[in-house]
Amino acid sequence: MADSERGGFSGGFGGGKGGKGGKGGKGGKGGKGKGKGKGRKGGDKEEWVPCTKLGRLVKEGKIAKIDDIYFYSLAIKEPGIVDFFIPNLKDEVMKIQPVQKQTSAGQRMKFKAYVIVGDFDGHVGLGVKGAKEVATAIRGAIARAKLSLIPVMRGYWGNKIGLPHTVPCKVTGKAGSVRMRMIPAPRGTGLVASRASKRVLQYAGIEDVYTATRGATSTMGNFIKATFEAIKKTYSFNAPAFWKQADLTEKMMPQQQFTDWLRDEKAKRDAAIKHQ
Known about the structure:
disordered N terminus, 9 helices, four-stranded mixed sheet, alpha+beta
């Protein structure tokens, strides 16, 4: 996303390169550049090299869609898997707060970043990361948010007309002292929520919902976490659409289905290492 949307940190890690100073006259020195650092690299991204079995299957095209990963509750341990299936994933920094730790040498200062990612169409993730520099904390939080990406189950209020637009049932999430309750709303109601929780719901692709909160909602970190936990519970409700038992023998797990390919691929990698 644009650096202007990242809480106004364009100077520290989003600014352009400093301009060159002009040449001085006889005996004079050139002026100093006025830039604030090199800024974030916006060039071509490095090629993703998978380091897990699931990542190798994804890059090779053995897994068609990310829903196949969620179907078997497989752990996503590489952000590249999410980028492969959802290249248009958006991210936004929700909060950056300084945290301190008392040590024998004094106080140690760090920055804690809260970042949400989503495609505005049924996938959302939340990441929290602390680091000594703001830019490092944001990069780490984005990576963690991609690893925690979850599918969002959407439903209807009343008749099933058009596309799903709200939560399928009443759900509650809790973090710290904050409780977030979401209630299905009629089409056209919009997101009846505060500014922070509304942004998380927008990234999740929910269009209409009523919300009720309790606790210290001024603590934005716990407020965002409670909203994320409530969204996560949309798939914990056993709706009638899920009553039919799936035939697991008909559709095997990816690691089981492509066992031979994984074995041959590992043999090739081992041979290449030996020749080096």
